[in-house]
Amino acid sequence: MPSLIDRILRRRRPVQKESRVARLAVQSGHGGAIYSDQDYEKFSKETYLKNIIAYRCIEEIARSAALPSWGVWERPEGEGEPSLVETHEMSEVLKRPNPNESFNFLVLRAVAFLTMAGNSFIERVVLSTRETVYPKELFVLRPDRVSLLMNKVSGQISGYEYRIGGGHSEVFEVDPITGQGDLLQLRLFHPTDDFWGASPVMPASRDIDSNNEATDWNMSLLRNQGRPGMVFSLIGDISDAEFDRFEKHLATKFTGPENVGKNLILTGESGTKAEPYSYSPAEMEFIEGNKELCRNISRAFGVPPMLLGIPGDNTYSNYKEARLAFWEDTVTFYLRLLVGELNNWLFTKEDRLFLKYNSDDISALESRWETRWKRANESSFLSINEKRDLTGYPTWGKGGDVILVGANLIPLEAASNEDGSDASESSDELDRIDEGEGEGDDEKLVSVSLRPDEYEFIMDLRETDEGLGAEDEDESGD
User: Fold this and answer.
1) Tens digits of per-residue pLDDT, 220-252?
2) Long-range contacts of 79-85 (CB under 8 A, 24+ apart)
3) What percent of the chain has pLDDT over 70?
4) Coil, helix or strand at residue 436
5) Measured between alpha carbons, how far is 3 from 348 in angstroms, rounded to an integer?
């Protein structure tokens, strides 16, 4: 039985939760730090800095994600719609996250790193006095400079180490209870790595390398007059000095774009000749093969080839549809991932504040909004509040729970009786009254669920019929 001191300490000790299998991932083969197995420097050079298709894909995603404006919103304590908070500490951070960047550029860098490396890291700077839980500044760090520090006992991340080269490093500790710290890791899904994300560059790496090689091959052809290499057959033996002079003469006089069209003259014994070798560009189908590589690269990043000007892809009928699909299928995913991770990192569960981007700033989604507005406006069975909710506007309370219909239509509440019976039953009963059944009993009309104006109209009509009948009797008597 535990002692009194043990029970007191157990009550004060925070309850920790840890996975039963997480520690198995770090107990074998790993040291104190875990580095990404991806060669980030090679990724960045071969994709963003060398391959124009990969560059355009990363730029399209990052620039599009950086377009919408952001705001701090607050949920009400009771029922109601969230409201935009104009004056708050986080609102100031969104206006100026750090002295060197705007929030839009910060989002651009975060999404670009995430797309290119599969991982992105955001640092928050808080006051040393910890007077507030909200950060004063935000920074995006290069993912290749960050390593993960693991706790072998719990199998959880205990911290992040940021190191530039072999110099001084900075360690960002992680709270073992909440699993959070002053560094946020954004990552994409990786099927075989528990701690690092997989970049779209990985499945597209072979196509990117092939496209780069094809571009280099094409450049070599241009430097050599657009022709394949030549085989020179010389009769007899030549000295090393003559061989070097001949090779230098060919390099300076007959290669490069400035020497295109020059004729090759060979001197020597009878039988000396030059013949081309390898295949011609037409035989290798360079152009069509390169287009297919470009389409594969764009598909790996989730960017429609039509947006990049790559011919041969007719998935979408026009540029507008391709742009809309790009936003709905690719950019929206990155924005929602960023919103969810930031809200989970910056705010607690008890906090009613949250970050949200303004989707009205996205011009590519205007066609979708136009369709929704038209559908809501033309619907005859929705109330005002339902229409406003469908178009993203706050409701008007009970006053908006009404359905408006045209003046020539019967309101919904008049289409059925108070007891739930259908209006057709009232119509059948009126027909029986008009045919003479129950004549003289005006109370019969009252029992039918009619509006006052309908009842008065029927009574006036009956009085008119009775007056006409009386006139007919007088005329027959005369």
Assistant:
1) 766 665 555 566 666 667 777 877 777 777 777
2) 81/394, 81/395, 82/354, 82/356, 85/353
3) 63
4) coil
5) 36
